[in-house]
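[job 0412] stage=complex_fold ligand=adenosine monophosphate status=START
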Amino acid sequence: MLFWPVNWAGEQHVQDLEDLIRTIPDYPKPGIMFRDITTLLADAKGLKKAIQHMAKPFENENIDAVAGIEARGFILGGAIADRLQCGFIPIRKKGKLPWKTIGQEYTLEYGVDVIEVHEDAIAPGSRVLIVDDLIATGGTAEAAVKLVQRSGGNIIGATFIVDLPDLGGMQRLAGLGVRSHKLVAFGGH
Ligand code: AMP
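[job 0412] stage=complex_fold status=DONE, emitting structure tokens
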């Protein structure tokens, strides 16, 4: 199985970033601890550090494109693409992209949702890095991986600020042979 956890710049940096993330209990519904990264994005040093360390393990991987997942994956993904000197591809919720699309269904707690990418966005064989703010169950990231693969792209990895390890998302990606990287982990949901 292709999985190698990536170490990064040390405990103090992790603590700094963790402290910049605001936790909102019972949002959007009872029992969920919402990890709000807008407070980290608003902090110049925190934002710079997050972008730097999300990109770091992939700097020598010849990434051709970053695929960012709507909506927070766009903010982080654009900056990471600039850092890796590659293009950016938006993965959007159904019905938002203006050109012809390919869609991928994924299961939510109640029902299903669909994400889409432009059918001509990913050059065949291109080396793609998936970006989002947070991985929980991994359902969204798995759908993004499948969408990119169905478009002919080659997934090189996935990078997140936050992992919720109790929900098993990174393990799920490892099961698909995808190398994933996170900066901060929070226990619970
Ligand atoms: P999942 O598909 O379960 O891995 O959920 C990941 C997506 O849902 C990401 O786009 C996150 O932004 C969002 N998300 C899930 N759980 C949380 C949470 N506790 N706090 C903030 N965002 C979350």
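The longest strand covers residues 154-163.
[job 0412] exit 0
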